[in-house]
Amino acid sequence: MNYDSPELREQLAAEYVLGTMPALVRRRFERLLAGDAALRRAVEDWHARFDPIDHGAMAEEPPARVWRGVERELALPRPAAQAGWFSSLAFWRGATLAAAAVAAAAIVYVAVRPTPQATVVAVLSDDKGEPGWIATSSGRGGDVDIAPVRQVAIDATHAFELWAIAEGKPRPLGLLQPAPGRKLAVEAALVPANGVLAVSLEPAGGSPTGLPTGPVEYKGAVLPRD
Amino acid sequence: MTDSPLLLQELLRKTASGDSAAFAELYKQTAGKLFGVAIRIAGRGEVAEDALQECFVLVWQRAADYDPMRGAAMSWLIAIMRNCTIDRLRRRATRPEGHATTEEALSRLAAPDTASKGIELRALKDCLGELDEQPRQAVLLAYLYGLTREELAARLAVPVGTVKSWIRRSLDRLRRCLDR
Q: What are the distances in angstroms from CA B64 to CA A169, A200, B155?
């Protein structure tokens, strides 16, 4: 397709904002957007034409778990000297670590049988709490291995990408193979001590932008190391 | 909810510098309206909640990309919210049913959060009113409820090709009407 045609560019920008593009066309267009500032402006203009409708949307109180999920996913630093509302952060981080530790113990026992001295670095679970990946380390300074704990279906147009998230900033660590026995080795120094490991669904070949573009399918807090 | 565009802009700027208290305040101020947008598109439930969570994760990560010269902070947030919701909706086989008619949905809108958006909403409604009935329905059903071309074709009982050309022509007419 000739993406230089002004009519076509305008038309694609409009349909992107309207939301009628099929999923694959949408993804392709987003990759195009990442490297085309003029096209991004055309999209912004279309958003501005339609968004008075959304500015008038009726507000609805979201359940508290949404914000807790945001905090957990970003591993947000706890603001200093804030009481009350923010104190939930500490509670939820603690709860996540405890839950991850319980899950880790169960998984190590039933599924993985780690080699001697391997320690669990993180268990990455889906939003239902089902573990999908386990990160283990075999010793000081060595790599951290990320391996699937079960077979996960994925089509050829997508890939699972691993991210380290520290202070809310994601950093790409590589693509994962969702087949038993395949593992990704990551330098231990790239795994943040108080951060989160997350796996997002990306186009085949990985995120075109260097940031997660698809949904986070699995995540888990990095467990405290001794 | 207070709706001061300047305040939101300031909160976004602080968020970009890693101020998590400002980020939490931004959530308090805007999550309700954004959740309303997500619910209208995806219906109540998991998709809308997950999309709202993903939206704020992206807001934290991309706050530095927001350029106040290009539009209101709320508009920037709405664009992210819509994208997250539609992306998630597209990955689901089932969709919410029983939407209100587009006329009901439009008449039920609250006054937009700023006076200028109120004026823009009136202009948008006027220009939508200049479209033919079925093409207008196609555009509104898509924007309000995230319907795909195929869903629009089924709903309006016409071939997908007809929906495509209606949308193409309608968007072109809308742009010329709004820009004049």
A: 12, 22, 41
Q: What is the mean pLDDT of chain B?
A: 89
What does each C-alpha distance from A195 to A108, A171, B44 come to in angstroms? 21, 11, 31
- Taking domain B5-90, whether its CATH number is 1.10.1740.10 is answered by yes
Q: Which of residues 151-170 of A touch B (CB under 8 A)?
A: 167-170
Q: What is the ipTM of this complex?
A: 0.91
Same domain, A46 and A69: no
CA–CA min distance A110, chain B (Å): 30
Q: Which of A60, A92, A213, A217 to mutate to test the interface with B (most CBs of B within 10 A)?
A: A60
The residue among A169, A100, A172 whose CA lies nearest residue A129 is A100
pTM: predicted TM-score of the whole model, two decimal places: 0.63
| Residue from B171, B168, B157, B164 nearest B128 by CA | B171
- How far, in Å, CA of A146 to CA of A176, rounded? 8
- B23/A contact by beta carbon, under 8 A: yes
Average pLDDT over residues A25-50: 92
CB of B1 less than 8 A from some CB of A: yes
Substitution target in B29, B53, B149 with the highest count of A β-carbons within 10 Å is: B53
Q: Which of A10, A56, A86 sits opposite B109 (nearest CB)?
A: A56
The residue in chain B having the minimum alpha-carbon distance to the alpha carbon of residue A72 is B57
Q: Is the pLDDT of residue A145 over 50?
A: yes
**Which structural domain, as residue segments, surrounds residue A41?**
6-55
Q: What is the pLDDT of residues A147-205, one digit of tens each?
A: 888 777 777 788 889 999 988 888 888 888 877 777 888 888 888 888 899 999 888 88
Give dist(CA A164, CA A195) in Å, integer.
7
Give the one of A41, A47, A168 whose C-beta lies nearest to B60's C-beta: A168
Same-domain check for residues A21 and A45: yes
Q: Would you say the CATH fold of B102-179 matches that of B5-90?
A: no
Is residue A160 within 8 Å of residue A178, measured between CB atoms?
yes
